[in-house]
Amino acid sequence: MNLTQFFQFTFKASTVPMSFGLSIKTIIYILSLYVTMLFNVNIVTARIILKRIPLKSEISRQYVNPRAIGVNLTTNRIYVGNGDSTVSVIDGKTNSRKDTVKIKNISNFHLRGLGVNTITNRIYIAGLGGTVDVINGKNNKIIDTIIVWEGSDGAKSIFPPTSTAEGVAVNSITNYIYVTHSGNIVSVIDGENNQVIDTIILRNIENVQGVELNALTNRIYVTGSALSVID
Fold this sequence. Notes:
Layout: H1 3-13, E1 19-22, E2 27-31, E3 35-42, E4 47-54, E5 66-72, E6 77-82, E7 86-91, E8 96-102, E9 111-117, E10 122-127, E11 132-136, E12 141-146, E13 149-150, E14 156-157, E15 167-171, E16 176-181, E17 185-190, E18 195-201, E19 211-214, E20 219-222, E21 228-230
Antiparallel strand pairs: 1-2, 2-3, 3-4, 5-6, 6-7, 7-8, 9-10, 10-11, 11-12, 13-14, 15-16, 16-17, 17-18, 19-20, 20-21
């Protein structure tokens, strides 16, 4: 069975993958509906070692529907944003869950984006309602909630209340965080003070979701009705 056949078989046998992360040792973490699947891929022989890491609620013991993932290459920690508004912290050495962080500002099934700064060891979580929570990776505590937008009802949020933050990308070199939301907007957050310093409107683009970046070239790539490249 080759690499493509293996992935097709695995996803068909379990569920459709939702997101993935990559470690420096060519270990690929892929989220499915119920579990995190760990693929250790030898890029020469295409040999795959599969391990499933069950993620269940510590209260209900039900699967938590993982939705977003990020990897800190420096600390070897994997962060998984779940459908029950928690973040699972996984030790990359043992592939076991070490901690669970509850995100109070995001309701169930609305956690969408997750990004990691490998230098400052900060994790950024975003979802429906627009708040962006900041986790200190040293102790897995929420240290800030980014609030910069004020609605007509006086409620503050980084985005309008009806919007959903779909994607988070972090440039560990510049310490800037990019968050996609509201159909065609990318907000730029300064990780030094957790303030929004710029708002980029993608003209003639709809349904922006995924966002990734190249830290070396400082280019940001946003998916939507078309692929946008931001300098």
